[in-house]
Specification:
Layout: H1 13-25, H2 32-45, E1 51-55, H3 58-68, E2 76-80, H4 86-93, E3 97-101, H5 112-117, E4 123-126, H6 138-148, E5 151-155, E6 163-164, E7 167-168, E8 175-179, E9 192-196, H7 199-209, H8 216-220, H9 242-252, H10 255-273, E10 279-280, E11 294-298, H11 303-312, E12 334-335, H12 339-344, E13 348-351, H13 359-372
Parallel strand pairs: 2-3, 2-4, 3-12, 4-5, 5-8
Antiparallel strand pairs: 1-9, 6-7, 8-9, 10-11, 11-13
Helix pairs in contact: 1-9, 2-9, 3-4, 3-7, 10-13
Length: 374
Amino acid sequence: MEKIPVFLPHIDKEMRKHLENALDVGWLGMGASTKKFEDKIMEFLKLKDRYAITTNTGTAALHIALKIANIGAGDEVITPSFNYVADHQAIKMSGANVVMCDILENNLGIDTVKAESLITKKTKAIMPLHFAGIPCDISKVYELARKYSLRVIEDATHAFGTSINDKKIGSFGDITCFSFDPVKIITSIDGGCVIVNNKEELEKGHHLRLLGVDKDTTERYKNKRAWDYDVVSEGYRYHLTNIMSSVGISQIKNIEKFVNSRQKVCERFNEAFKEIKEIKTPETNFKNISPFIYTIRILNNKRDELIEYLQEKNIEVGIHFIPVHKHTYFNDGKISDMSITNKVVEEILTLPLHSEMNEEFVKRIIDSIVSFFK
C-alpha cells in the first residue's frame, strides 16, 4: 500500500522545461526571470500602487519586512506563539524583542484583545499569521494598529491566494509576506516575497535584499551587472535567482487550478468528519481560502492513538505547531495568557493535502479516519 505523505510538491513537465530554459540562458543569479516572477505575483494579486520584492526564503522576507518597517533594537513586536519559529527568529534578527500572544479558537489567528494587553511604549509592530490559509481577524488587527500607531506585517506564508472581502491578501493593508518554499501551494524550490506600500519601501527592500548595493537590482533584472555601484545601506544576500524564479513562474501559472483542487479536498474532509464528535473541523467552507494545510482537532485525548492507527494505514500526518513559547531559546520571553494555544497544540493534527490530490489518497484518508471513530 502506497504511503500518503503530508506534503507532495507538484512537479510536472512544464516546471522541468522552465528550468531547462533558465539554465540555457546562462545567467543563474538574480535576473530577468526574477523580475518576471515578481510581475506575475503582482498581476495575480492585482496590486495597485503596491510592489513585490522576491527573496530566497520566507524567513528572509519576514526579516526584510521588519527592516523596511524600521523595527530595530529595543523595539517590541507582538506575534502569535502558535506559528513556526521563522517569525520569531526574524524579529530577533532585526534586533527587536519577541512578544508572544495567544490565539482565538475559531480561526487560530491572533487574539487582538490579549494582544492589546501586551502593548507598551516599546511596541512598534504586530505580526499576525493567517494559519493554514484561513484569515485571522485582520480588521481587528488593523483597528489595534491604528489605535496605537503600529506597523502591521502580515505573515501570509500560508495564504498565497486567499481573499478577504474579494480582495486577495497582500493587495491591501500594510506589509505582507509570502513563502514559496518546497511544500507551499506554489514553490520556487525555496523563496519568499514581501509586498510593500510604495516605491520608497521598494527601493529600500531592493537595497536590503542585495548587500545594500544601489544599482544592482536594476541591472540584474536585465541579466547584467552594475560596475559603478555604491553601497548605501546595510544589506543581506537574500535575492531570488533566475533558476528558482523560473520554477515559481511555472507554478504561478497553475495557481488557480492548485487552489481549486485543494479547496475541493478540504470541503470533502469537512463533510466527512462533521458528524464525528471527537473531531473539530475548520470553521470555514473554504470558498475564498487558499489552503496550504488542512488541520483537524482531535478531542478527548485520542490524537496519539489516531496517529498510530493512520501510520499503520501508511498515512503520514503532522502537527502544526509546537508553540514557540515552549522552545528553549524563547521560553523566557514576554507572553500573554496562552490558554487557547496550550489547548490547541495538544489536539491539532495536520492531514495530507496536495494540489490535484490522488483520489485514492483522499478516499483512504477519509475511510481510515471514519473507521477509527466507529
